[in-house]
Amino acid sequence: MLFELDAITAVAIGGTQLSGGIGSLHGTVIGALVMALLANGMNLTNVSPFIQTTIKGAILLLVVALQSRKKMGL
User: Fold this and answer.
1) Under 8 Å between Cβ of 58 and 13
2) What is the rounded CA–CA span in Å between residue 10 and residue 57?
3) Residue 64 to residue 54: CA distance in whole angstroms
4) Within a 13 Å sphere around the CA of 18, how many CA atoms are in the beta-carbon half?
């Protein structure tokens, strides 16, 4: 069920740099809560599991793009 995608996205939302950064437990917990709320909302609105995976992947790409932009100073 692609739990790895959920875990990596939760850590990235929590503020850990995926390019080798230090994160915090609080940020990771908040990221996990955001992912759980997102998954629950999509399940309640009967979103297809394939679309759910696509949305989670898009969120991960967005977070990584924002982190790399922030790291470059833009």
Assistant:
1) no
2) 11
3) 15
4) 19
pLDDT tens, 25-55?
A: 999 999 999 999 999 999 999 999 999 999 9
Alpha carbons 1 and 55: distance in angstroms, whole number: 14
Instruction: Compute the distance between CA of residue 15 and CA of residue 20 in angstroms, rounded to an integer.
Output: 12
Cβ contacts of residue 56 below 8 Å, gap of 6+? 2, 5, 6, 9, 35, 38, 39
- Would you give the end-to-end CA distance of the chain in angstroms? 36
How many Å apart are CA 33 and CA 4, to the nearest integer?
15
- In three-state secondary structure terms, 27 is helix
Which residue's entry shows tokens 């599991």?
49
Q: What is the pTM of this model?
A: 0.82
Q: Does the structure show a pLDDT above 80 at 14? A: yes
